[in-house]
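Support reply, case 0932

Customer input (verbatim):
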Amino acid sequence: MNIKTLEIADKKLSVTAEFKPVMHLSGKTIFRYEVLAKIYNASDRWLPVEQSFDILARETIQAISDFLFETVCELLKMKEGITVSFKLPAQLMNDMAYLASLYQQCGDHHVAPQRIEIEVGEWLTDTPQMHRQAFLQQARTYGFMLSLEDFGTRKESADSLRMFRFDTIKLARTLVCGIAASPAKLSTLHNLIDKVIPAGTHVICEGVERSSDLALLSRYSHIGIEGYMFSRPLTFSQLRLLEDF
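Our regenerated output:
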């Protein structure tokens, strides 16, 4: 179910789906999974996804995205109570027809879009405001949750966050990792959570991999955390064992 082979200029790429658990800081319970693509070439060499997406043709990127979304829908059909975060590639952002096709897949699989969170990146700030606002509004109209990743890597505006009304803000790994050794990082993180991110928005800290950093996040019992300290991404088989289905 979770392996796809793509032909690109007579060369083969194998793509598999993995699932990164997102934990509640209080209780350390899993409340969401993030689906990830893992790409290998014909020599079984692993290729970094972000670098691969920079050089792959749009058709190939869409094929990988389609495969991941299909995997998410199949998973949600098998297990009630799970929600999954799905990262939309930058190359497909603002493509209304593609967004409509994702919504159609939910209908074909009888899966509620409300169980899927579409994650967009910081490149959103480089897109004309009218286009990005219309795209995100349409995604919300379809019922999808919305998430912004890598937050905190540039000057942020509370007003823009309120305008786009993200359900979840993911604080960048580069900001979170090492806060115990960097008072400046820690101060920035506190400012973003306490003053910039709108109240009621879910906050997830990426890259929590040190106990010293985790201890400083303990004041925020409501936030979510990701990182190898808790779990590496899971294969579909490992996820089935963990969730018992």
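We compared this against your earlier run and they match. Two observations from our side: The longest strand covers residues 11-24. Strands lie at 3-8, 11-24, 30-40, 46-47, 84-87, 116-120, 145-151, 168-171, 202-205, 224-225. Please reopen the case if you see a mismatch on your end.
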